[in-house]
User: Which sequence fits this backbone?
């Protein structure tokens, strides 16, 4: 990186593919960058900056955040805001920033779940941390069983009407709740742009109705943890590397590296090698196969990882035969402890 502030690569739009979110006009890169892990208070800021700017240079126009990303909660937004102000502010109109609220953020009755009180105050706090006037997408992060869905959707509608968000999204909603959310939002006059959910060769719940529901309501789909947090790469095939997510995250554990996991992952790794690619690339191509998923939301702890992941877009698509050969090894729940 030679310029400070950064000067973006002129070739950044030449190779990335962009897809519309369902039937809506907003297009997202097929690979987006998420800041859940690796961008909090415990990770070096210069590495964060390198990854974020390299992403933009590769045509990744979409950064995904949430109020609670860190650790500590809020620190990913604060760090991103600092890098954004220094290097990316002048490219604001070329960038899609999303944030969310719905998981625990602060003590007391207004710092968790799905009330209008929590969602709207959290959006203000996210904007303040990132130093932005608006986010492009504001998500309700998870359904709240104790708050009427109308209340959460009215808060998203309000966020859009106030100009603090351009679009509304939901995350981790099941198929029926998704259809209901889309209906309520449509009646309020704010469309459901997109749903963010977990999907990978080892996490296939979305195939049981959610992808169909999204087709039905015409919303986009962005999938998180498409690499199963690194478990659908070769990262853990020869032990637990120092500094890997298993060594520092509360969301990934050594006990998940079972014999069954290793067996299936080695088989998938061989299929990838047969195609002359890495397992990470195969895993990304797999979630993007057939065009039902708008964007795969990856995390990365280095620029090299991100480059490898983006290169997955430049290899021939999986054939029906290859998909069938992958299927016996792509078993839902493989990486569960
Ligand atoms: P991934 O499945 O892409 O996992 C990322 C991890 O995989 C990296 O930290 C790295 O591990 C490893 N990795 C990535 N690329 C490679 C590679 N080429 N070779 C080897 N290892 C690699 O996604 P995440 O779980 O990070 O989730 C992505 C984003 O999705 C989040 O940042 C967030 O924005 C969103 N998300 C949303 C949720 C929601 O509830 N809506 C929940 C979770 C995530 P290592 O660090 O060990 O190098």
Assistant:
């Amino acid at each position: 990186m030679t310029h400070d502030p950064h000067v973006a690569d002129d070739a950044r739009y030449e190779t990335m593919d962009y897809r519309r979110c369902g039937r809506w006009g907003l297009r997202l890169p097929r690979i987006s960058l998420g800041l859940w892990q690796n961008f909090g208070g415990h990770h070096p800021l210069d590495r964060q900056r390198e990854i974020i700017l390299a992403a933009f240079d590769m045509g990744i126009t979409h950064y995904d955040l949430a109020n609670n990303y860190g650790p500590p909660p809020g620190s990913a937004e604060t760090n991103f805001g600092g890098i954004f102000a220094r290097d990316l502010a002048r490219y604001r109109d070329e960038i899609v920033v999303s944030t969310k609220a719905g998981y625990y953020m602060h003590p007391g009755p207004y710092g968790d779940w799905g009330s209008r009180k929590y969602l709207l105050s959290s959006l203000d706090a996210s904007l303040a941390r990132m130093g932005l006037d608006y986010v492009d997408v504001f998500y309700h992060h998870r359904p709240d069983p104790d708050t009427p869905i109308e209340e959460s959707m009215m808060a998203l509608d309000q966020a859009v009407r106030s100009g603090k968000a351009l679009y509304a999204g939901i995350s981790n909603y099941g198929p029926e709740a998704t259809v209901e959310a889309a209906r309520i939002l449509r009646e309020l006059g704010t469309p459901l742009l997109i749903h963010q959910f977990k999907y990978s060769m080892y996490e296939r719940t979305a195939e049981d109705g959610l992808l169909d529901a999204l087709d039905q309501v015409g919303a986009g789909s962005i999938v998180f943890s498409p690499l199963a947090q690194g478990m659908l790469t070769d990262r853990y095939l020869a032990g637990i590397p120092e500094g890997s997510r298993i060594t520092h995250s509360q969301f990934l554990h050594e006990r998940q590296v079972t014999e069954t996991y290793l067996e299936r992952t080695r088989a998938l790794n061989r299929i990838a090698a047969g195609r002359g690619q890495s397992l990470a690339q195969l895993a990304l191509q797999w979630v993007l196969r057939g065009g039902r998923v708008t964007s795969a939301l990856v995390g990365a702890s280095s620029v090299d990882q991100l480059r490898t992941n983006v290169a997955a877009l430049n290899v021939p698509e999986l054939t029906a035969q290859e998909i069938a050969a992958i299927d016996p090894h792509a078993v839902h729940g493989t990486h569960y402890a």
Notes: The longest strand covers residues 165-171.
